[in-house]
Write a structure and sequence with these properties.
single chain, 380 residues, conserved putative lor/sdh protein from methanococcus maripaludis s2 fold, OB fold (Dihydrolipoamide Acetyltransferase, E2P), 4 domains, 8-stranded antiparallel β-sheet, 6-stranded antiparallel β-barrel, 4 helices
Length: 380
């Protein structure tokens, strides 16, 4: 017999013995006993919500974005080369700060020429004043004609007019030079830089945009069908994208008198009730509604709702046991973040506030407190 056959025979005997041992461990005449039922769930009052009607504020829906009330598009008032841009996007500025400096070489030369023309006109006026004084003296002595006196007076008037014109040209040149330094009109933040050093700025070219983040407000649109419900002074509540679940309260400040001809929506402005809590980033999308009416409904916090696709369910405590109930929800309340219940539950029923993932239908549940450790109970 080959050497491998005894080994194979020994393995066969061991396997048969193992199978026999397993068969002996099983209960005679039947399968292994089924798994035990889940343990009873111990609850505290804080774990359960007793449903009761609460007030749900409703009103026209608002959609729009946060925009600053104080904003300025700084543009070039002269044609010149950009020498320096002193602020970039996001930089804070104070009122009067120089933000952009333009080349003033040609304007400076014009200003010098205008100032020199003023000095010449002042000298000419002084000379005509002296000439007029002599002519008046001679005329009083009868030594010059009335025509000569009139000519002296006319030259004096012309010299005075020339001085006024020269001063106007100098003032204009000085104003042009001041326009080579673009300053911040108010304290705020640079929101958009549109030029760099070396660019040629023509008249009207956009240079920088400055906004005041402290003046942000909700500029929204509302359907024209709901515009009749709006009144200045009404309260509004809204959320802002990028600010998580934070809710902001506001007041309707302005309602446009005309709807957009294309969208048939009416523009409104909502100010923040707490300006200090408002975001400091313009352009964020926001949505909410004006509080024009209220009704009594059952409300569920988000933690109590178990979602599976489009289906919403809650765990209800009924008769000392748990069951899973499908519910239909309405539009989320922007103020509280809770969901109104349209159907599936009634007032007085109890649901779990924050159900776990290991619950089963029919599981027993009861109110109580956890047992104390033996050491604690004995006072040790």
């Amino acid at each position: 017999m080959p050497k491998s056959r005894p080994v194979l025979y020994a393995l066969t005997v061991l396997l048969a013995a193992a199978l026999a041992a397993c068969g002996g461990a099983a209960a005679p005449g039947g399968p292994v006993a089924a798994a035990s039922a889940p343990a009873a769930l111990l609850l505290s009052p804080a774990d359960v919500i007793t449903l009761a009607p609460s007030s749900l504020a409703t009103g026209p829906v608002l959609t729009g974005s946060l925009q600053p009330e104080r904003r300025a598009d700084l543009r070039a008032e002269i044609s010149a080369v950009v020498l320096e841009v002193r602020r970039d996007n996001g930089d804070a500025v104070a009122a009067g700060d120089v933000l952009v400096r333009l080349d003033d070489t040609a304007i400076r030369d014009s200003l010098n020429a205008a100032n020199e023309a003023v000095r010449v006109a002042q000298a000419a006026l002084a000379q005509t004043d002296r000439l007029l004084t002599r002519q008046q003296t001679l005329a009083s002595q009868g030594m010059v004609s009335a025509q000569a006196l009139d000519d002296a007076q006319l030259r004096r008037v012309n010299a005075a007019n020339e001085l006024v014109a020269a001063r106007a040209r100098a003032a204009q040149a000085l104003q042009q030079q001041a326009r080579t330094q673009v300053r911040a009109p108010f304290a705020g933040v640079v929101s958009e830089r549109q030029v760099s050093a070396g660019d040629t700025a023509s008249v009207g070219k956009a240079l920088l945009k400055v906004i005041d983040p402290a003046s942000l407000r909700f500029e929204a649109l509302v359907s024209a069908d709901d515009a009749a419900q709006l009144r200045v002074g009404q309260k509004a509540v809204f959320r802002v994208n990028g600010m998580g679940e934070a809710r902001f309260d506001g007041t309707l400040k302005r309602i446009d008198a005309a709807a957009n001809a294309t969208t048939r929506q009416v523009a409104v402005v909502v100010t923040f009730d707490d300006a200090a809590a408002a975001p400091r980033v313009a352009g964020l999308f926001a949505e909410g509604h004006v509080l024009t009416a209220s009704r009594e409904v059952l409300m569920l916090p988000p933690g109590a709702i178990v979602r599976s696709g489009d289906r919403a369910e809650v765990w209800r405590l009924h008769g000392g046991k748990l069951d899973k109930v499908a519910v239909q929800l309405g539009e989320r309340d922007a103020r509280s973040g809770d969901w109104p219940v349209r159907s599936g539950l009634t007032a007085g029923e109890q649901v779990l506030r924050n159900p776990g993932s290991n619950l089963t239908v029919g599981q027993a549940a009861a109110f109580g407190t956890a047992a104390k450790p033996a050491a604690a109970a004995s006072g040790k």
